[in-house]
Known about the structure:
Blueprint: H1 13-16, H2 19-33, H3 39-55, H4 60-84, E1 101-110, E2 117-125, H5 126-152, H6 158-164, H7 169-198, H8 210-216, H9 218-241, H10 259-284
Antiparallel strand pairs: 1-2
Amino acid sequence: MLTTFSYIQHDSFVHRLDPRTKLIVLFAYSFAMLQTSNVWIVAAGFVLALLYFRASKLTWEETKSTWRLVLPLMLLLPVINYILAQGDVLQGLDPIAHIHVIFSVPFLGFLSHAPYFGTTSLVFSVESIVFFFTQLMRNISIATLAIIIPYTVDPGQIGVAFKGLGFPDTYAYAINLSFRFLPTIIRDFDTTMAAQRARGFELDKLRGGVVGKVARMTPLILPVVIGSILGAEDIINAMELRCFGVDKRSWLVELHMRRDDYWLTWGCVLGFVALTVLNIIGIFYTQGPLHVIHIQGIPDFLYK
Length: 304
């Protein structure tokens, strides 16, 4: 019922990377891809993200519960954006005098005048469809890099990694606890569900509406919530007894970057810097190669 992000041990290139490297790859890639809607640049990043996932040796069976949650969400976001924008492409992107409309359908949407909501047209054009798939590839590639982290990083190294990136001890330890706390809640939920089923509780036959079903799940939710609160209080008391936050802390685990970490880190950082520079320069040069990330890059044959 709950999606888990359990660490899976493999002997892979990604597993051997320093946790800080994986975080830098995620942040650098995300900020770089958010600056462009050029279909070729985003498609190249999408392929690289898939190759990175393949290098982790994670299988579909091991991560399918996560993908079943993430993929519908990644598809839903571009669909909602397409409907709200009524098929328009991003403003300021590739300033074209007219779009190449394929067809349009009647639809309900927002109007610029009273009553501000009514019948309008949902436009399907070459530009809007390409922009839709560009958004989809961007979202899935960023989600792929994010999913890899909990599956390939030992939970005991999460806090050390954020501390190594310059985060204060309090923030690093809070993130570390969150990665440890979620699997604990899931374990308690599974234990409670098994105990309630042994007592005759039929989870698959809940009747009523949404409120009614939630009310009937009280025998599952209440013990887990109370147990989580008590567990959190125990952790707080233990940290206070050790004077956490009073002085600078030391960490038991020490991380060391290898050659592969440096190459990958610098490659991602330089890629982010290059796209940022092109983004800034492209504002002043509205044509030519320096304006490349401000255009969609749609192939000519799609217009014919």
